[in-house]
Amino acid sequence: MERERAAMDWVEMLNIFELQRIFYRPRPELGDLGVDVTLHDSTAEIAANAPRYRRKSSTFIDGIHDVPEDQDMAPAQLYSTMSGRLFHSGRIAIVMVGLPARGKTHICVSLARYLGWLGVKTRIFHLGDYRRATVGKGGIVPEDYFFPDASPQSVILRQKILKKCREDIYAWLNHENGQVAIYDAVNPTAAGRRALAKELAKHDVQTLFIESFVDDEAILRENARNVKISSPDFAGMDPDEAAKLYLRRIDMKIPVFDTMDEKELNYIKMINAGQKFFYNNVSFGYLSHRIVFYLTNLHIKSRTTYFVRAGVTTEEDSYKADAPLSEEGMAYAARMSETLLKHREQERAALVEKGGNAVPLRPLSVWTSTRCRTVQTADYLKNKGFKVRQRSQMSQINPGVCEKMSERAIRHLYPEEVEKHELDPYHHRYPRAESYHDLAVRLEPIILELEREQSDLLIIAHESVLRVLYAYLMHCATMDIPILKFPRDEIIEIIPAAYQNEAKRVHIPGVDPKITPGSPEDISIPVPGGGSGVASGNLSPMPGISSPAEPNVVVERPPEKVINTAAEMVADRQNDED
């Protein structure tokens, strides 16, 4: 028995990561998210049969698993290097540890989102994707696949899958200048983890283990309900009973699991979704401490974020003036608030109708900037008893000398600045103004608090702030951020999921989607593509042509439209035990 267990531990040593660069082309017969996967020459030949691995094609799909262009600067990246690696931190392998339904995938996806936002070249390697690619669509692994005393056939299959991971991790770190590779798998035994750390050290790769340990039955059931029980095996069952059955299957399939206490290894242990937090060593550079700090702000509980714009004011176009809402702005605030409250009740009713528990709605918190128009837009909800917080970092982007100037005047007075702006609208700043990069750096404390927030969250802010926060949650490309648009007659809803976030548009009835003249949001600044000689004179700060909604398409807006869904990702991984 000990010999067989040692053999399994040796196999575990091999499980190092990366899923190849892949591209996709839409396949209408599979629907909006259907993809046909092909491979990039720089990676291995296995392609996971999961639709989330595809090149970015739009701003309204979560891009966390996209392959970025090599020359892209991340939104909050402060500098660049020839190697592409930052903070003098070398190469790091983050190895997830924990049984299924413990939130490992949520943690590694969230961490990859944050590191990518900072400009750290990060890629996630889900062992389950390799297994599914190896066994083929619809295939299953042997019953003893996860057992320490598995049959020779199962051991050979494990070796094949883990060998592919090992090849891909070294290809990513050595040949594609990767800096952080995140390996998403169970990694159940102490001996296997020690062997893995030694193997990586031989290749000058530092290893950080992150264990998600959960013994709270309520958290386990919620995780199982949210991710796993969409399998046909559980069709028609009570969600709680289905979750219990799934957790029993885990115990049967993975009978041996050693929680982390290896004193010589670098590891972080998160207990019960962040209720307790331990770390051992983790002292190999600035980046490791940033990772620890981020994880202390992270939780794995489900929570929804809503984005809306403030109502219009009585003042003419002005950044400096802090005017109150007009009557139209007050009416908008009431209409928007009632629409949101009704939508939350409808979503809860729909969940109960599908067999979910009739639990109360999660608390709703409201964040605004300190500007009068955002504060007054939230007053309707505040008067109904909802908690409202004012955040000074959420003030709109500063237009500098361009305040109150028409686009025609800006082009006449600052032609060189306009030319620079059209070349790089994200990083360029007009005289005495802010760039979107400045705004992204300013908003980092808000992003960390957003990760820490456990209540549902409504953010009322200027469109420039919404662009940056939306880009973080949906992993938009840097150059897409200045051209995102948020119609005034819509609430954007973002629901976190384990593999990628899900976004919806909720229509606010009776509201003009166009920007109302007289709003301080109407400061006119030229944008790329505006140099035809015909100035509009009526553009919002750093505005653009695409949005979280489908760009340039005039449609009848339904009360609610799904922009992106994680349903196919859940179905694809329904039997995933990694």
TrEMBL record:
Ligase among keywords: no
Gene Ontology annotations of biological process type: fructose 2,6-bisphosphate metabolic process; fructose metabolic process
The UniProt record lists the keyword RNA-binding: no
SMART domains: PGAM (SM00855)
GO MF annotation list: 6-phosphofructo-2-kinase activity; ATP binding; fructose-2,6-bisphosphate 2-phosphatase activity
Keyword set, alphabetical order: ATP-binding, Kinase, Nucleotide-binding, Transferase
Signal peptide start and end residues: none
One annotated Gene Ontology cellular component of this protein: cytosol
Region Disordered, annotated ranges: 530-557
CDD domains assigned: HP_PGM_like
Residue stretches making up the 6-phosphofructo-2-kinase domain: 81-301
Protein name: 6-phosphofructo-2-kinase
Source species of the chain: Colletotrichum fioriniae PJ7
